[in-house]
Amino acid sequence: MIAAALFLVVVMPAMNAGGWVSDFTLNVWGKYLCYGIMAVAIDLLWGYTGLLCLGQALFFSLGGYMMGMHLMLMIGKLGAYKSDLPDFMVFLGHSQVPAFWKPFYSFPFAMAMVLIVPGLLALIFGYLAFRSRIKGVYFSILTQALTYGAALLFFRNDLLMGGNNGFTDFRTLVGANLREPSTQRVLYILTAVLLVAVVAGCRWLTRSRFGLIQRAIRDSENRVLFSGYATANFKLFIFVVCAMIAASAGALYVPQVGIINPSEMTPDKSLEAVVWVALGGRGTLVGPVIGAVSVNSLKSWATRAYPDMWLIILGGAFVLVVMFMPKGIVGIPGQISSIYQWARRRWKPASATTDAVAPPQAADP
Amino acid sequence: MCIHGLKRGAFINPMARRVLNRGLRMSLPRSMVLIGIALIAWIPLRSANAAETSRSARERIAEAVTAETPDKQRELVLALKSDPTPDVVSWLEKWKEGAIYLVDDGNGGVVPVVLTGKQGADGGSSALRLSDGAPALSADGKPLLVNPDEVEAAETDSKLRKAMKEVTDLAALADPDITRRIRAIKDSAIGQNPEKLPALEALKSKEKDRDALRALDESIAIIRLKSASPDERADACKTLGELDSLAAKDTLKNVLADAEKSGDSVTAKAARQAIAAIDAHVAMINAAGTAFRGLSLGSVLLVVAIGLAITFGLMGIINMAHGELIAVGAYTTYVMQNVFASGLNLSPFGQSISIPGMNIASGGDWYFVAALPASFLVAALVGLVLERGVIRFLYRRPLESLLATWGISLVMQQLFRMIFGSNNVQVSSPAWLSGNWTVNDVDFGWNRVFVIGFAVLIIAATWLVLNKTPLGLLIRSVMQNRNMAACMGIRTERVNMLTFGFGCGLAGLAGAFLSQIGNVGPSLGQDYIVNSFMTVVVGGVGNILGTVISALGVGMADQVLQQYLGNPVTGKILVLGAIILFLQWRPAGLFVTSSRSLD
């Protein structure tokens, strides 16, 4: 694992600087790693606490939007309308920057907002949901509704957040030109470092006493409750932390991809992110990262090679993973060895009597 | 009349000259009659009216077309007001459209003709004389062939068109079709022209229809608002207020402003009262319209959510593909429509499939009757396949059933795109579902009335199936306690399968419906899935009555908020927020199924 971390943080950017890895590849990997961070957050909620949140894309893109607001203001007079205002505001006929945009001129303020806005939303929503003990599928449906409502809101022009088109055409970040490969390399390194830090942090968290209670809540919330733990507070804490992790991934995603719009926020995106976790292997910390990177590489390839088939591949893969690979890619070795042992036990008495060959079964359903 | 002719140095009245010209090619007695008429026409027009009415519309219009000066043309057209038959209107329309052509009659004059039949090789069509419908003949006695590009069309100027409109308006007032007549009556108030009053009063004395009488009162009162006497104006205001006339509101406001300016307190008071009465009426209409739209949206939600209430509420399966099963129903309706008509060509996966059509003439009206059971069956079949193939492995893992069915929904959406194309398909409503039913200025669309009725029907049927049939008993027992039901010898697997199929069939029915009130496209289901889950959660899982109440509540709240905020999206967002807060108050929904189990 340390080797993989070193590879992502040091070797990849070094190879890029040396010219062995193209700028495009590095940029794409930066995007995948952002998704990986979001996937870890989902896994921390779903795999470790048993809360399937279908609103993680909302927190991710909220973080992205906060970063986007700062980047939009940094464009300055370089925009298409040569105005101090972001282009879409000029287009909508505004003459000055709205009051709630003004503090975003400050980079530290924007960075604080990246964490505070999604964190606050998660705090309020989580408090309401966990206090009234909404759990299981109801929690999933409610988070989905929250995301749906937020996406509808962000699609509107009068929210002054860019409407349909969102934010794009960014120029500089803390004085560095975003179109320079070196800036992108630094962003990539930051993403990789954040990913490693998040995985390490979650590893520490899940191995602590807190992590134990977390898993106990997943397996039987009532017993934990009757043992005297305020499960709602534990869940609320983890929900807010995961929202912040997703938001910081979103904030790094936006300058690398160069656009953020409300379609990143839809419930579908959240579900897609859940697919990464399920495919990679939930309940592990490496699994979600593997899932995010592999599904997105597959997507990049399939949407070019078989544009019509991509949704069928994704949907079909998902059904198969849910049904036959409950532990995902990470769980495959374990599944193979259990099949092997099952077959060996079956084979021993069989060899004594007849030549019955047991059909291997894929998994316990 | 003849002065013009003299001024131009003609010795003979142009009308008479035309008649004489025509007469040269006619049998003697007929030309004699025409000459006689021409002589009568010599007399000033007003007194000639009585005689004019006895002539056919074509003749009189032909005469107007060829009149020498625009003024006279107008005079002749206005004379038609004495007897505005539908025939007159249709010829005037033709004239206005430039479909009446002027051809040389071979004697230095012109004759108005209409062209009929196909164009020949030389671009000519046979010409019929406007005056009597007989073929126009060329100088050598052969039927005349006219190329419309080469001859001049009879022209109209704005004054003439205005005169024509007066005639057609008058004709419309006498239209035998009641809707068109009422529209004409309402239109006659525009411009508040007092000259129209006598015609309206005359119509009022013989009109029998109540709606038409109401419209007449309204129009007469609006015109009388222009009257010089304050008492008459005040009286008109009062009438309009009593009639709750929406059309008069703006006029009344102007009258009020004028009256205030000129210090006419009588009219001002009456106008103010009338406006208040109309405003109250408008508020009533808006409230009734909102209530109706809320009810119909609630019914749509109900129809969409009732299937979900069974698969999710009773069975505990989160079926994210529910929306796609709705789309299956909608696409089945589309296929049925085409099967009843001329068939359908599809090209999925590069294959070409052609479904033959039955070419039934009235298929447009009756396909829907066949589509309802078909959409139920097809969706139920798809549901059974899903249950056997995927969902039966996931009964104990609800979160994973959510994810697997979402995967299925992606696959199905893409299949719709590949089979039916990614654009919306056209599903037309049968004639008996289109149109409005207007009560007291509130419009009730038939298709929405139908949706409400159908929702009631579906709920009744579902309730009967669940509570009055052996299958319903089995379903309820399995849903209450699967293990105990299995111990009692119930084949739970089979009951699961049937229940899921039933729920999916209901989704298909919902799709047949939505095809009547919205677009049918691959992402049809996505528009409804979040709302229908919300509806079921709010209603209380496992309770049909709760679903009914919450669907109506959500639909009504959505429409009321939309009405007051003037913005559909904000309304939707507020409804979602309200639902989240509502679940604070009642975490298990409106109706809680009491149970001793903890989870």
Short note summarizing the structure:
The complex is a heterodimer of chains A (365) and B (599). Chain A has 365 residues and is an all-alpha fold.
Give the topology.
The complex is a heterodimer of chains A (365) and B (599).
Chain A: H1 2-18, H2 23-49, H3 56-75, H4 87-91, H5 107-131, H6 136-154, E1 167-168, E2 172-173, E3 176-177, H7 181-207, H8 209-219, H9 221-226, H10 231-257, E4 259-260, H11 267-280, H12 286-305, H13 310-324, H14 332-352
Antiparallel strand pairs in A: 1-4, 2-3
Helix pairs in contact in A: 1-7, 2-7, 2-8, 2-10, 2-11, 2-12, 3-5, 3-10, 5-10, 7-10, 11-12
Chain B: H1 2-7, H2 14-24, H3 28-42, H4 45-52, H5 57-65, H6 70-79, H7 86-97, E1 100-104, E2 110-116, E3 125-129, E4 145-146, E5 152-153, H8 158-173, H9 178-187, H10 197-206, H11 210-224, H12 230-243, H13 249-262, H14 265-314, H15 322-340, E6 344-346, E7 353-355, H16 363-389, H17 398-420, E8 436-439, E9 442-445, H18 446-468, H19 470-480, H20 482-487, H21 492-517, H22 526-539, H23 544-565, H24 568-585
Antiparallel strand pairs in B: 1-2, 1-5, 2-3, 3-4, 6-7, 8-9
Helix pairs in contact in B: 2-3, 3-4, 5-6, 5-7, 6-8, 7-8, 8-9, 9-11, 10-11, 11-12, 12-14, 13-14, 14-18, 14-21, 14-22, 14-23, 15-16, 15-17, 15-21, 16-21, 18-19, 18-21, 19-21, 22-23, 23-24
